[in-house]
Amino acid sequence: MLSVTFKNVGQGDSIIIEWEDNQKTKVGIIDCNLFNHQNPILDHIKASNYQEIDFIILSHPHYDHFSGFNQLLDYCLAHRIIIHKFLHTSQQTPDYLKAANKTFIAQRELATLFKNVRQLWKVDKIILQQGYIDDMTRDLALNTDIYLKILAPTTLEFDSYISNINVTSNEENIHSNANANWLSTFLKIYTSEWQILLTSDVEKKVLNRWKNNPTEFASQQLFLAQSPHHGAKGNHSKAFWKQFIPSNGSKIVISVGENSYQHPSKETLKYFTSKGFQVLTTQEGEILSSSTIHTSQLLDIFSKKRAAIQAKDVCFKISQSGEINLLSQTPQKNNHENRHQRL
Fold first, then answer.
1. Per the record, a Pfam family (predicted)?
2. What is the β-pairing status of strands 130-132 and 82-83?
3. pLDDT surpassing 70 at residue 210
4. What are the tens digits of pLDDT across the range 36-65?
5. Contacts of 247 (CB under 8 A, 6+ apart)
6. 2-342: which CATH topology?
């Protein structure tokens, strides 16, 4: 059994992976973003009472992907929660890190994060393994049946970042430089029967490199995939996605919140639904299909009013027999409601 939870963190990413290994539930984390002064990933770890975290992956050094990590690490230290692996795509040098973020807040938070990681690894021994993603860490066995493979970034993307080669689209929040999207992870979780693709903010050119690749993708059904960069048009690759034929209710998830970039784009939504994928967003909280998407609805789907009512985590559970189920989630309450409940 494996579950994948896309936490509702507004315009950002936070993903929880949970699976069974030797009758023990394990957990992995991909990104950790603060949202409405809360930390949904940390709340999940607390509620589940985990004493170990199998892996943490920082997909790339953008604020909407790492803003909650320092809180999470502080909690792990205070409660002696072991982190077996902390993997990332960033060289820990000042110029390298500053080039990823515009604001002092983001640069300081990222520098503090890597300082904390080194401390927890070298001194406090909470992190057992930490480092830059390389050929030694690209294949991880979650158990005897389920594997995680890191398809990107490769040397090509690292060179593009260092050379400051322009990305497809410059649609970032105030904290982030778009060029750091070259460092985004492209992850594949798979068995011999099915596969899940998690794309963070990966560039279109990266996906195009993996188009028409039967060796890597055709042998397993695509159960679940993430549309990169919050469904942005500039990161959408028809050449890549057309190699997959939806089956067994294949799902596309878009992590998205209120934004000024028209994420997710109409073109992205229409493409996936026209191919037969079931599309879900953390902002809308329900399945969007070709029969329910019309121009008028697209204009209203991501309005502030609907987002405030509908926004929720999107969680899937995949059984050992290969069935994927969408779990019903409770919409997140706004700050006023949360404060009222605490009082």
1. Lactamase_B
2. unpaired
3. yes
4. 999 999 999 999 999 999 999 999 999 999
5. 221, 222
6. Metallo-beta-lactamase; Chain A (3.60.15)
